[in-house]
Amino acid sequence: MANDPNDNKPSEPTAGSEGIPAPEGPANLIDTDYVIGQDNITTTKFGIDLDLHGKVFSISSLLILFFVIITLALQDQVEPIFNTVFSFLTGNMSWFFLLAANIFVVLAIGLIFTPLGKVRIGGAHAKPEFSYLGWFAMLFAAGMGIGLMFYGVSEPLTHFGTAMGGTATENGVRTDWAPLGAAAGDQAGAIDVGMAATIFHWGLHPWGIYAVVALALALFSFNKGLPLTMRSIFYPILGERIWGWPGHLIDILAVFATLFGLATSLGLGASQASAGLGYLFGIPDNNVTMVLLIMGITVVALMSVVAGVDKGVQRLSQINMVLAFLLLAFVIAVGPTLAIISGFFTNLGAYMVDLPALSMPFGREDANFSQGWTAFYWAWWISWSPFVGMFIARVSRGRTVREFLIAVLLVPSLVSVLWMTAFGGTAIDQVVTDGFQGVKEAALELQLFVMLGQLPLTSITSFVGIVLVIVFFVTSSDSGSLVIDSITAGGKVDAPKPQRIFWALIEGAIAIALLLGGGLTALQTAVITTGLPFTLVLLVACYAIIKGLMSEPRAK
């Protein structure tokens, strides 16, 4: 039985749930008899400890294993199916993804300026666990991933090239892939629209999606005392029914979305690492290399799982952050430094000018861009949102909603703008200033290494790029295993390690199955397919956030 959400009189916190600290100071705890793990199966088989939610774990794992087996066994048959499904969903549902993402951004920005922004995560007297510097670094770490490595050069360069090419029509329908109205033959205009389109995909909208999920998880776990799972967000709507099948289905959807979102990133990372190894060392860039990479890196991820979060993920993340900053600083220093610095502000301005047109869900003339690029991206971010949202929620206890949203929206977005400006801007400069066409003509997964090849210390920087992709791969797999294991263990955050090992293996198996069963299109189809129903879940969560915040005491 929940407290009346319209009653703003705060209740004193009681003991916290297992693994979840109790609120500090006044907070409106939800009064429920449910105990975390009460529906779990706890046993020991063959010397392996198990503690898992029977229904969520069994349904999720069996369906996913069935998918992997069918995809691997019927590769030739499933590839055309992936192509058909992807074309149908992006062609018919892109407006839905664009509209939903706009709602998430508007909600996040709106809450900053309302009195609800004064609510403090973790209770009215909660104190932040991390300094601003440490907190910002972790937010940046959450946003840095294989995607920035894969698309940092290729996306700005691609949009610039298509914009320069102008629009093309066939039977009155545009057939080009340029964003908005393109900028045929206008070099400066093509750079502006190309960078604006890139920043659109890596700026406020993805972080608005993450902010909504992270805020919802943090609010209902740290302020309301519920388990750290997606089903808890729906208590204001479903009440005690979240502990039954409605809640099971929400958590199963979260597992699917997270797994396929991670598998897409791992597949992209494997293709880029394989291309980089071929570029540097002449290793064949084919499916065998990519499968061996996924298998090898999954083994490293398993070692990280066994080592634990503190010794495994934390150390690898720290190594990755240092390498990423060094590579970024190197490109800024030896690349077109002044163009990068001035471009940062110019690109931000272009983004703000084009933002309304880029985010318009209806009446788009640039259908290939909005459907093939934006719709895929929004589904990808939505698939990642349980994973990234849970991480952000865990490190943001003690922050007010206002400072939480300002930081989550702005800090990672600005870092992404700088990264895209440095890497993409350098590649564009090589094309337009130096006349170097190699980076433009290279395959997407190879463009980063070709760009670095025109700068000093090529072998070192390219090798660092490969290491970054691989370590992002490992940390994503390990952290993703932790999140999925928490969901399938009924909200427990300290479930036995063998369960995390199982999910790390499954992530690698899905990435291999999708790569062999249809390559990039299969990966994109998996994200779009799971992202569609999960978008509905997040739209309902928006209402739950407002309902939950209205019942909370506010910081003065």
Walkthrough of the structure:
The protein has one domain (41-84, 92-551): Amino acid/polyamine transporter I. It is mainly α. It contains 18 helices and 4 strands. The model is unreliable at 1-18 (pLDDT under 50). The longest helix has 38 residues, at 75-112. It is a multi-pass membrane protein. This is BCCT transporter.
What number is the mean pLDDT?
87
Low-confidence regions: 1-18
Biggest pleated-sheet summary: 2 strands, antiparallel
Which CATH class is shown? Mainly Alpha
The total strand number stands at 4
Assign the CATH architecture: Up-down Bundle
Helix proportion of residues, in percent? over 70%
Tally of contiguous helical segments: 18
Walk across the major sheet and give the strand order.
1-2
Determine the CATH topology. Amino acid/polyamine transporter I
| Radius of gyration of CA atoms, rounded to a whole number | 23 Å
Succession of helices and strands? EEHHHHEEHHHHHHHHHHHHHH
Distance between the termini: 29 Å
Category from helices, strands and their pairing:
mainly alpha
How many domains make up the coordinates?
1
Beta-strand percentage range: under 5%
Describe the global form: globular
Tag the structure with descriptive keywords.
556 residues, Amino acid/polyamine transporter I, two-stranded antiparallel sheet, BCCT_transptr, BCCT transporter, transmembrane helix, cell membrane, transport
